[in-house]
Structure formats: C-alpha cells, structure tokens
Write a structure and sequence with these properties.
The structure holds two protein chains of two kinds.
Chain A lengths: L4 E3 L2 E4 L5 E6 L6 E8 L3 E9 L2 E5 L6 E5 L5 E5 L8 E8 L11 E2 L3 E5 L1
Parallel strand pairs in A: 2-11
Antiparallel strand pairs in A: 1-3, 3-8, 4-5, 4-9, 5-6, 7-8, 9-10, 9-11
Chain B lengths: L3 E4 L2 E5 L4 E7 L7 E6 L6 E6 L5 E4 L2 E6 L4 E6 L8 E12 L2 E6 L3 E6 L1
The chains are: A mainly beta, B mainly beta.
Chain lengths: ~120, ~120
C-alpha cells in the first residue's frame, strides 16, 4: 500500500458525459501527478500540481482539467468524454523536493474509466 | 514522438533464469532512470533507479546496467521467480526545476516466470 488513495475504483459512463476522479496523496506529500494508462499508449503523464499550484503539463487534452485543494487532495475532471478516454487513471504523489535529485513518485491504485 | 523505447513487449522466462529488459532514450536532458513494477490491479511501484553517472546498480536480484554514450539502460532480474511475474516499466526523469520531475515511461514489458 503506497499511502495514495484514489476514488472511485471503477467508473462507467457514457460518451459526452463529465466525470471527476479524486486523489488523496500520502501524508505530507506536496506534489500530485496524474497519469493515463491505456493499452496502446502506455503510461502518459498528464499534469502535476505542487502545493496547490500547477507545475508541469504533459499530454493533457483541453477537455481535461485538474486542481489541487488546500488540504492537498486533487481532482481530475474529464468532460465531453469519448470512447478513447477509456483507460486507467493513476495519481501519484511525492514529497517536498530536497534539491538532491529525483523525488520518488508513489502511485495510487488507479481509477478504471470505461466510456460506453 | 516516443522518448523512451522499451523491449521486449513480453517475456517468458523459466524459474531460476535471467530476465533482461532493455530501454533506450533520446533526450540527454533526462537525469534519472527508475524502473517500476506493476502487478495486475495495482499502481506502479518503484523497483530500482540509477543516475547517469553510474554504470551499474544492484539491489538484491535486480540490477540496472546503464550505458550513457549509447543512451541505453537495462534491467536484469537474476534467479527469476514466479512472484516476479508483473509488468515492468522503464522511465526517464527530467528536472523541470522548482520541485518538478516529469517521468516519461516506456510502454512496458509483461514478464511471465514459469515454474
């Protein structure tokens, strides 16, 4: 158990709908990362938040948005859903950067999104 | 453009054998190379990682070999066990500054260790 929690575990919805995925980082971790995992694209970095502020953006569609709240939990909002958005969505968290190098990212169990 | 290429896509190894997974990267700005292990229904978990100024790192049965000039690195699993059956991802990290480290993953290798 990494200490990162994600809800819901599974989500089934229809095309055109909007969903919200929730992530609670490990206690004390300030950074939250969102990833999309699909069979053909693998694990793709979407976006990072650090202490409430957006820090880095990857391959995130304009239909997707995220935020990190004062209690450090994060939400990923997916709108105008398409069949191709069906995937596993992972959240990861990492502690405050020490400046000494890479910060390990601890992954949650993921949310499986199915768009019908 | 895929910045980290991983092979093979799948691998079947007999118990006690050596599993070898290879990765190649393109961007010389990458400065940290972790390997993640993922079991079905779980999130990826860090297995072992290496910096580019080191040519080899060993932790138990797991070894990373790193060739900076060739921009290649590999994971060796010695004495492979059925419990090692999982999907393995190589990754490369880039420091964006101010506490941001973006991970770029390879597409994964599904390892099956048969008794």
């Amino acid at each position: 158990d990494s200490g990162v929690t994600q809800t819901p575990k599974h989500l089934i919805t229809a095309t055109g709908q909007r969903v919200t995925l929730r992530c609670s980082p490990r206690s004390g971790d300030l950074s939250v990362y969102w990833y999309q995992q699909s069979l053909d694209q693998g694990l793709q970095f979407l976006i990072q938040y650090y202490n409430g502020e957006e820090r880095a953006k990857g391959n995130i569609l304009e239909r997707f948005s995220a935020q990190q709240f004062p209690d450090l939990h994060s939400e990923l909002n997916l709108s105008s859903l398409e069949l191709g958005d069906s995937a596993l969505y992972f959240c990861a968290s990492s502690p405050k950067a020490t400046g000494l190098g890479y910060n390990e990212q601890f992954f949650g169990p993921g949310t499986r999104l199915t768009v019908l | 453009q895929q910045q980290v290429k991983q092979s093979p896509q799948s691998l079947i190894v007999q118990k006690g054998g050596i599993s070898i997974i290879n990765c190649a990267y393109e961007n010389t700005a990458f400065d940290y190379f972790p390997w993640y292990q993922q079991f079905p229904g779980k999130g990826p978990a860090l297995l072992i990682a290496i910096r580019p100024d080191v040519s080899e790192k060993k932790e138990g049965r797991f070894t990373i070999s790193f060739n900076k000039s060739a921009k290649q690195f590999s994971l060796h699993i010695m004495d492979s066990q059925p419990g090692d059956s999982a999907t393995y991802f190589c990754a490369a990290s880039m420091n964006w500054g101010a506490g941001s480290y973006q991970l770029t993953f390879g597409k994964g290798t599904k390892l099956s260790v048969i008794p």
